[in-house]
């Protein structure tokens, strides 16, 4: 394997890992506040549909982005009302969100576009086009550094750069601001936060709203950046893989970047090398496609160290009278 092939694999890993990274950070805010959210899959799917549909109709990827974030936010509000206001089971609410998005997107897509549950193909301004960074063309022939800058760092859509910028921003918000301190405290000991006169409900709704925005960006990227329109079930389990990456990262933003890029790299390898000959055994395409999901099971089973979730996670808060 030469250096150019390695760079291409890493470039594919970045593209494929971006929606996982955004969804992982979305789940990070929610779960740090004590709201378990397995409905990331549904939010991403809803965002992918509305962004693809609006971009197809208007020819504007930015209007599609607004619609996608709005669709994900609406499902976040549903999950927030069920989990925070009505103190329902958060896992069941998340499953309901996923089923709702799965059926709703196909039904509306077929009703609007009559293309078998998909949106029309996007092109031109309907998609987020790759951005060429300054000097990329000038240094592309420089060995190693030029190849990395031109082929790996440059040439991505704006949502990829937004996703990577969100990692240090999330770290700063959670660990260097008063809001982040209160958000983490709500996930660990909401009673003490309430005693200090801070609204637990407001903080948790804020976290759920942030989750909606980030998962909306993830879904929008799928439909208008990575692909060229919405297709049925296009999230393909990415919401669940993002949750596994979140557990793998132990609910921290910087390790979440590494975990999601690892999943992206595994998917890139499976796409490029359908069959891998190890000499003794030949790994078929089915195994390579299943590797990210196998790793997800390994992580969730606890084989990659012990991950301790926020102490008040999954528990509705009842204000003491």
Quick synopsis:
The protein is an all-alpha fold and 321 residues long. Helices cover 69% and strands 1% of the residues.
Describe it for me?
With 321 residues, the protein is mainly alpha-helical. 69% of the residues lie in helices and 1% in strands. It has one domain (3-236). The chain has helices at residues 3-32, 40-58, 61-85, 90-113, 136-139, 145-153, 158-176, 178-188, 190-195, 200-226, 238-248, 253-272, 285-300; strands at residues 276-277, 282-283. Strand 1 (276-277) and strand 2 form a beta hairpin. Pfam families: BPD_transp_2 (PF02653). The chain crosses the membrane at residues 12-29, 49-79, 91-113, 158-175, 207-231, 290-308.
What would the keywords be for this entry?
ABC_transp_permease, single chain, 2 strands, globular, 13 helices, 321 residues, mainly alpha, two-stranded antiparallel ribbon
Give the % helix.
Answer: 55-70%
**How many strand segments?**
2
End-to-end separation: 66 Å
> What general form does the structure show?
globular
- SSE-based structural type: mainly alpha
- The order of strands across the largest sheet is 1-2
> Major sheet: size, sense and barrel closure?
2 strands, antiparallel
Number of domains: 1
The radius of gyration over CA amounts to: 20 Å
Mean pLDDT: 90
Percent of residues in β-strands: under 5%
N to C succession of SSEs: HHHHHHHHHHHHEEH
Uncertain segments of ≥5 residues (pLDDT<50)? none
Helical stretch tally: 13
GO cellular component, one term: plasma membrane
InterPro entries: ABC_transp_permease
Protein name: Sugar ABC transporter permease
Keywords: Cell membrane, Membrane, Transmembrane, Transmembrane helix
